Each structure stands twice: as C-alpha cells, then as structure tokens.
Predict the structure.
Amino acid sequence: MSRRAKIAMFIVLGVVAAGLIYLRALGRRIFVETPLRVEQEARTKLSQVALQSQTGSTQTVMLYFPAYEQGMLVGEARQIGWASDDVDRVREVLLALIEGSHEGRARVVSPSASIRAVFLTTDGTAYVDLSSDAVSDFAPGIASETLAVYSIVDSLAANIPAVRRVKITVQGQEVDTLDGHADLTGTFVPDPARIAKAN
Amino acid sequence: MQAKLPETRLPRRSPKALLPILALIVGTFLLFWPARTLRSDNFVFYFPKERHIVRLEVIDGANYLPVLDVLNAVGKLSGFEEKRNSAVVWFGGSGLQLKKGDKKVKVDKRTWNLLHPVRVSNGQWMVPTDFLSSVLPEVIHQRVAYELGEKRAFIGDVKPVTFTADLEPVPNGVRLTLQFTSPVTVRTASQNGKWVVFLGDEPFEAPAHALRLQNPYLSALQFDDQDGVPKLLLTPGADGLNFYPTQSGRSKFIVEVAKPAPKLAQLPATGAAPSAAQLPAPPVPPVPPSLPAVVLDPGHGGGDPGARSRDGLVEKDVVAAWGERVRAALVATNKYRIIVTRSGDTDPGFDERAGIANDARPVAFLSLHAGNLGSKLPQLAVYTYLPSSLTEGSQETGAAMTHSGVADGRFVLLPWNELQMAHVDRSRRFAQALERQFANISGLTTSGGSVEAPVRALRNIDAPAAAVEIGSFASDVDARPLTNGTLQDQIAGAIVRALDAFLGGQG
C-alpha cells in the first residue's frame, strides 16, 4: 500500500469514527436526557446569583405558597432584589419561589431546579422554562400540582402587572403534565380565588 | 535531436487500501438498515388425522413460509442441495429448484411464477404462501385447499367444519347460537377476561378477523387456531356478566350471556312459609337496549407509580384496589355497564384512556387518584376540569363553540382537546353530587365543594367527568388507613348513590 493511500485511509477512518462518535452522542442527547448539571445550567445558576446580588434596588413582593390543609395558596411578603426590566423581575420572583417559604409552607418547585429561560411577550404572556428537576422532590397529585402551578402564576401576576398569563415549559419543551396530573399544555391566567383570605 | 523529458510517475491506486474503507461504510449503512422481517406468526397445516404448525414470517408485507419445514410437514424430504444463490430440494422424486430473489420456481421441467420472490431469512429458504396453492399440489400429489391471506391450509381429504353464528336478545342478556356443519364436542373456559369455547379436534375454517358486535353483552367474537387448537374467543361487553354454555345436540352450541339474576326481595316473616302460589311473580324487567355506561379510570399504573406515601404506599396500587370496589358496587346495582380504563398493572396514556371512555359513550366518567391533601386523614377532594388555557379570549371562543353546537342542533366537530368543555355544567353537577355523598361519611374530611383544576385525565372526556383524590399522602402522615376495605366500601357506596342522584336529577 502506498504512503498516500495509507494517509487517505487513516483520514477516512478518522472521519467515519468521529461521525459515529457524534451520532452516538446525538442519540444520547435525544433519547437519554441528562438533565442535571450540564454546563448551560451551571451558567444559568451563576447568572441567577449575579442577578440577585447586583441589582441596586429592592422591593417587597407577595409570594404565594401552597397550604394543603386549606387547599389554597397563602401569601408571604418578602423583600427581594428588584430589577428595572420585567423579564428580570419574573426571574427574581421565580428564584424567590424556588428558595421556598420562610414560614414553613410547602415547596412549589425543587430547590435544585433552575430557570432555564424567561420570555415576556407584548400581549403579557410570560414563558417560564424550568429545568426537568423542578419536580424531583415533589409529591405528585391533583391538589399539589394545581397549587404549584397557581403559586407561580399568581405570584408573578400579583407583582408584575405586565404578566397577564403564564405558560410553563420544562427543559425547553411543552409537557403534558407537571408530574402526572396537572395539564400544562395550556396557558394559565391568574386565579385570585385560589388565594386564602388573610385573617 | 530531441531532448528526453524526465519520466513522470503517476501515483498508483491501491485497491487493497479501499477495501477496509468500503467495508466500514457498508457496515455502517447496514447498521441502520431496517430489519426486513417485520413479525412472525404461526401457520397451521391440517391433515385428515393430524396437524402441523409451521412458523410464518411477514417479509416486506408478504407472508412467507420456510420451504423445508413445509415439505417436512406434508411428507418426507429426500435431499437438499444449497449453492450461493440457489437451492434444490428433492421431494418424492421431484427436484424443486429455488433461486434467491427470483419469483420463478422450477419443479423438474415445469416453471411456476410466484407472487413474491423466494427469499432467505435467517439461513432458511422462504417461499411466499401462494406456493401452497400453485407448486405444492404438484410436488406432493395431494389436494391442497388454501385461500390466499389465510394462515391455515388443508392437505388431502380434509373437510373443514364451518359454522354460523346467530345472536338474539333475551331478557337481561343475549343468546349466541353456533350451528356447526359437523358434530363438534365443545368445552369452555375463561381466560384473561374472555370466554373461550374450544371446538374439539376437528379442522375448522373460519375468518381470522374478530367480529365486532354492537351489543352491550357481547362485544367481539373471534376464531383462533394459531396454536393448532381451534377455539372461539368471546369478549364480554362489560364486567360482571354471567356465561351460560349449553350443548344442544351434537352440532349446535348455545351460549347465553346475561347480567346476574336479581335477588328476590325478602318477604316479611309471617310465621308460615308462603306457598308457591302466594309468591309474587318476580318482576320481569324490560330488556334495555343498552345499559348506560360508567367509566372508571384508576390513575397511573405500570411504570408510572404516581404519588408515594411515607409508608411506601403507591398511588397506582391504592386507586386500583379502590377502583375494583367501586366497580363491584356499581355492578351490583344491575343498572350500569362498567368500563375500566386499565386492567391490571398497565398504564394506558391519557388519550388512550379517553378513547376507551369516549367509545363507550358513558353517562359519567370518574378518575381516581391519591395524593398529598395535608395532614388530615382520611380526606377526599373532588375536581372538575378547568381548562388551563382559559385566557380571556379563548374563554369566549370556547363558550361560543359549545353553545352554537348545542343550540343550533348542528353537528359540530369539537377539537379533541376541548371535548370536556361541552360538559362543564353537567360535570359540575356530577361533582357536587359526589361531594354531597362523601360529606355524609362519618370521619371523612372533604374539600367542602368541588374544585376546578387542570386535571389532565379529564381534558379529552366527552361526558360528564370528575376526578376524586383520596389522601393524604403527605410526608408526615401514616397513609395505611386509606387501604382499609370498610372505608373504600363506604366511598364506593357513596359514589353509587351520587351517580344515582346525578342521573336521576338530570332527567
């Protein structure tokens, strides 16, 4: 075999091998989702921390957490960093919800969840894309999932007037349910009737 | 004098170097090439006194049989010679010549054209099934009765039995009469929720496709002999029906499928036993055209366990057991046809469950769940569907669509995802009836009114629908009392009463 032929053969073999490795990696990305701690999510977390720490002003917001005993949402006031932009405000409210209740209320989403993306359209629809571990520590059920969804929707709408409805996606995709019960295919409008009246 | 130009040496191509590359490319290509054999099945050869089963393969949409197995089944091979792309099979002095990929088959000097080419699958020479009606009779010198598309052939002097089926209504049931063309000894059994009528040892000829019957008592009738045993599979139209087989003569078989006979009302004790003449004649209920269907939907199942309690209880198991009690309670009323969306530990998808429910055109649909309802136990919450996409605009659109469909009396096609929208009011009434009955169970905490929630299980249901969630599966609660049979029976009874009240109230 001539030297040139050998070189050509090695190049072709290399290209084919690289192609096969790429196909395998692509297959894994498509069929075997590896949701946790990929670089993108790590960056998202870092940007969230930066968002919280670098905003100048603060604001007292009302966050709504589930109270299963009553089957309602209960308000909890909290002072958080307040950005000038509505999209960043959506992020800030969501981060506060992820942080959890300071008064021992139930969790809305897992503390390991990250906000992958937020969009706010001119018609007032906030698109909230959560990571797939949002429900990892979550107890599924009709009541728990419904309250979790409205906890997000009502908290956003109550504090950011530009938000008129919310669409929740997970890992960049529309999902059928949050965790087997609550229908997430639609867009949710705020429902103040789910908030318990303060005593 | 001409100057001699220096000799330019052209690079030589090395064919040997290209071989491994070519092999690699072909190998990669073959790796992604879909398998040609799609599925395999059985083919039955009936002889006057015996039968043989041969594997049937479907290749590229055509039925194929292994030629050696076929010839071994019908006689004795005397030789087989195989070359790279051809083969010769010797059978009873005849030589059968086959060529891979060729539709032509030669027997001695005669040639037949088959409908599909001869193939080699897993090292076996395969011929399409039309080989049985064209080539085989010439080779074995016997009569071969085979109809293209069927999965059975009759070799030699075999007269297959056929039958006619007649369906007629009887009070509270239906009678199926099977009239055979020859005497048949029948035996019955129950397997996997179906009744099986074994048709003895005679060869049978019947359509392989199931007959779907529009009957509330008997929904399907299917002939099957794929394991070499001819039998009829009868699918009941609902759970809890009784099956009464009777052999009438040697060629007739009658099956009655009926609801369990209602118990006679207990007579007041008067001291003396009443004579037969004094006994009131049992009321003969009119034969209903069809019992109203109620669909029960135990949530989750299979690989989807649903919620888990602190004690390891799993939602799918709790609701399956509870659903069975509700089903039994509803069956005992003799008023409803009960359809359950999942049997055993399976997990049909939401759309599949909705399809099962909507096909039955039910009067009510009830989805059963268990979850976290707080620290009180036992608790029940009743839900109706709140379309999650109710934006200001779509709310109006949805209402208009439903309204126009009903008020104008026009036939309106509703989107699959909005089917429940047309039943919102009646679903609320159903949920309220449930809530009222649950509130009467002592010791049980209820949500104090039905709740609207985006319950996915209800979205595509074309009937009044509600979901009931039992709890609590909270992390600080011992959920084991939820598996208590008495509690589940109480809830089942309340569901029956709620259904009666709801259906009675809606006129």
